[in-house]
């Protein structure tokens, strides 16, 4: 099913999870007063998971953040602990959300380990692959998503590693029968005798009624490039990210957080009070029209968590352009750090 993007796809996945776990009455009567639904997602899961929980009447506090490792992947042992905690508290885990390509680092959660735990506890597994799903085009990167076929639902978004204009979201389910709770009958759209006569409707498979012909651009791209052609573009972006990481690693002023998984490079300008300097150097680059550099913060508390981020999605970007960008980061960092030191001097 085509959607507006990862946010809508995540909402649909969690809606079906709610209905499958809590039963069909939840659509009519809401959440039973004696049920405490819980969604388990990593600390680095997309914010749309919390938003979906709110929209579904579960409340954002129903989402419990599962700790991650240094590569920002969900820790299976921590997920097992979260299931145990839910049992002690009398909560009902309705879904586990695994991420295949986090927004910040492109990290892919250990899908097989998570699928094992979800199956053991009879819990719906939704995989948010809005970013990382494009790795499936690449023979080199596709193994990163091994285990995604065990998910009950999956979010993809082709406006990232598919190079499509928005909207280009895709929502997949393993069993079409799980769409049952979305079924609706509107006599002006899908009268029963029309469907019996072979005129199907998508009304029972989507949250939307009015739809755009978004399938056309996807079909044209697949026809023109095929999986191999798209895979070459993905590999080119991944290779560029590896090169950018190497440049960061060999630049004394810069510090790489971790090796790229997909096409994202997370790093910082290494200096005292690095949070202020990195935040300000990024604004300086933007203000002067030199570059638009992403920003993120590592999980945890306290100072030292601000990082810069390059998300390399243009397969035609050159290594020289990346070198120039990192040189501009260093130049800006030196200027900001110098100004900051002079301000702090007595």
Characterise this structure:
This protein is α/β, with parallel strands linked by helices. It folds into 2 domains: 2-212, Type I PLP-dependent aspartate aminotransferase-like (Major domain) (Aspartate Aminotransferase, domain 2, 3-Layer(aba) Sandwich); 226-344, Aspartate Aminotransferase, domain 1, CATH 3.90.1150. Helix content is 39%, strand content 16%. A 7-stranded mixed β-sheet has the order 1-7-6-5-4-2-3, sandwiched between helices. The chain has a 4-stranded antiparallel β-sheet with strand order 8-9-11-10. Helix 1 (6-22) crosses helix 3 (48-55). The model has no long low-confidence stretch (mean pLDDT 93).
Report a brief summary of the structure.
This is Pyridoxal-dependent decarboxylase. By secondary structure, this protein is an alpha/beta fold.
Number of helices: 9
The name CATH uses for the topology of the largest domain is Aspartate Aminotransferase, domain 2
Query: What would CATH call the homologous superfamily of the largest domain?
Result: Type I PLP-dependent aspartate aminotransferase-like (Major domain)
How many strands, which pairing sense, and closed or not: the largest β-sheet?
7 strands, mixed
The CA-CA distance between the termini, in Å, is: 62 Å
> Strand content of the residues, in percent?
15-25%
- Return the average pLDDT rounded to an integer: 93
SSE-based structural type: alpha/beta
The number of distinct structural domains comes to 2
